[in-house]
Amino acid sequence: MLTYDNPVSVNGKHSSGANMAATMNTMGPNPNPKPINATVVPVTPNNTIAKVNGHSAPKQHHIWLVTGPAGCGKSTVAKHISTALNLPYIEGDEFHPKANIEKMANGIPLTDADRWDWLTALREESLRQLAAGAEGVVLTCSALKRKYRDVIRVAPYYSHDVVLHFIYLHAPESVLQERVGRRQGHYMGANMVHSQFSILEPPTAEETDVISLDVSGSMDEVLREALDKVLQKMDETASS
Hints:
This protein has 8 helices and 7 strands; from the N terminus they run E-E-E-H-E-H-H-E-H-H-E-H-H-E-H. It is of the alpha/beta class. The longest helix is centred in the C-terminal third of the chain and has 21 residues, at about 220-240.
């Protein structure tokens, strides 16, 4: 079981209200989808990712975690960013154990206990690919609760040249239910959208590593805005 007693650092800055609780209590429902307002990889003595094949790694390695409820377009947005930046793409759903997939296929919501190993596996796979030489990775994960996002936020502790960004995709529940209802052959049914909204904790203003994106519009608009925001954030990070 994962336990966290200290505040998590958000890209090098302590989040004043970080709640890294040791308990795994289920939070109350929050219907508003909009934001409000381990395996250790090889590191150098300076705690940065080691050289790969004799070549120095880039100054910073970005993990772009595309997050949000079912139907928001996580995979589509993540694949677009991955292709545009020529970065590896990690599909979070593929890392769910069989038991999790069976529960979701039968309309049974996952518990916190169901998610911990999954979240840890996603974090470790991201770091593994960076250690293998990738300049960054693009990852999908619903990360519906603050404490789920905090599990991934541990990644920069393993290497100080890793910069983590969440891309939070949001839209009204009715819009996402309609989209999921049109899917064919996916284990996630439309009824799971409501269950995810019932536990959703939209990112707060103090979660400064989050890029928020309304996905109610057309997919072309969403993809264009998502990439623009990623490129802008990369420029800001490089100049800081």
